[in-house]
Amino acid sequence: MAETWRGFWVVSYRELLRFVGDRARVVSSFAMPILFLVIFGAGFSKTIGTMAPGVNYIQFMFPGIIGMTVLTNSLFSGISVVADKEFGFLKEILVAPISRSGIVLGKAAGGSAVALIQALVLLILAPFLGVSLSVSMVLSLIPVVIVLSLGLSGLGILIASFMQSQQGFQLIIQVLIFPLIFLAGVFFPTNNVPTWMEIISKINPLTYGVDAIRHIFLGNAPGLGVTVFGHTTTLGLEVTLVAALSVVLLGAAMLAFNRQS
Amino acid sequence: MAGMIEVKDLARHFGGIQAVKGVSFEVPEGEIFGFLGPNGAGKTTTINMLCTLLQPSDGTARVNGFDVVRQRSDVRRSIGLVFQQSTLDEELSAERNLRFHAYAYGVPSDVRDQRIHDLLEMVELWDRRKSSVKTFSGGMKRRLELARGLLHHPRVLFLDEPTLGLDPQTRRHIWDYLSLLREREHLTIFLTTHYMDEAENCGRIAVIDHGTIIAIDTPDGHKRAIGGDLVVLSAKDNAAAAKEVSERYGAEAVEVDGQVRFHVRSGEEFLPDFVRQFSQPILSIGLRRPTLEDVFLHLTGHEIRDAELDAKEQLLQEMRRW
Q1: CATH of the domain at B115
Q2: What gap in Å lies between CA A116 and CA A147, rounded to an integer?
Q3: First CA to last CA distance, chain A
Q4: How many domains does chain B have?
Q5: What's the complex ipTM?
Q6: How far is A97 from chain B (nearest CA, A)?
């Protein structure tokens, strides 16, 4: 137990150190969401008008962009596993008296912390976009982002365990990220789309993560929540679903990570 | 007392390929023990098993009294490692690398900073402690890895080709540290090398080839075993010369690289008579004390640098990289 704990904190500490030290990553990870907010927001606002009573397009999209940022950062955090493999540092970690599960949890926690920081920094934009924000919203956002990003970081580590090069990893993640984002209700609700798209969107677990975040910002705005078989999902159900998925992904990541070497 | 490292019938195969075929040896505390052999001989595989990175297929090994399979964590805490390839975090500073290691090994906080300071002083990197590792030369990195491997007060230090690719001055330096450590901290050192001159620094040397230990002895013992001084001669007709040496002096003469080599008890007294009495025209003749290179040649029938990797061994090397 002590070895899992020590592995957990020493590895997550390093992930954070590396993130802070990597200025290019800090800057570039903010560029994407801001670009989407500015371009899509400006482009669609006039055309689309209101999404639901009292909700304009930017207010609709903003929680989705937070979800997108969490997804991107969490998945990409797995790259440090591949980088450590390439530069040999993984060996230093593997021979230390710390447990493998602790290493995976530490990596996931590091990725999760980075994703959370990004999400919170994005909140600074809220007042400028006309998105209302309260302390209780932020307080409920934090656990949701943590649960979501832990699982997605797990997925990143899972993929990284099979990869030998950073380029290969980046390629796979790029291929994965775009359909996940576009079919998760980030930019449009998943209810009034063609059936094939609706089915894929409702299988995509990220949909429920995004919707959970949207619930926090917009409450139960009519017509926006994800409906499955005629039932509109609740925040509680969505968080439970995402948490269950995260447990599965982290478990799979531990198995895959243990298998190597 | 029992050995610091005790290995019995240790074996490892990858698929159908036998990388290590059942080796046994014991290393007492405070000894510098060397594994000498060509690439692909099974040195790295053995080290990886001893430091718990690789599961043995068969046999047992104990380090500091702990079993490498059942008591992994105790083994890991007892050993320091310096690998062939760098395992530093290039983005972090020298000091941060050491600090990470101290945390990971649970070095108590009251001794941590002092220990980091002392070791960085020892490897002469204290002035560069704030620089990120990617600005370091190969020699500096190796010195930093050595410092890191010692940080948690290991009882045994494993060095896999510790001076590979370093300039002679840095190699000299690293050996100075190692001798110092052995005296001061009574450290047991296990190293692999294929540099002959380096192997001379060891207390005992195991010669390994094709996954098997061929002989274990002190450097002098190895040299004695091959039977005295080495005579190297080249004649107009080497084959005839070798035949005459064998017949007249009963020495085992071998032809290598266009030269005839054989061993005699005391070369200085032997040579004048030999030259006077030999019937074949001699082009050149030399006498030298045997080196470990000669030992290796004598034991395996081939020179260490000639032990080319065949396809099988190359595959093994690939696999060893994960």
Answers
A1: 3.40.50.300
A2: 10
A3: 22
A4: 2
A5: 0.79
A6: 5
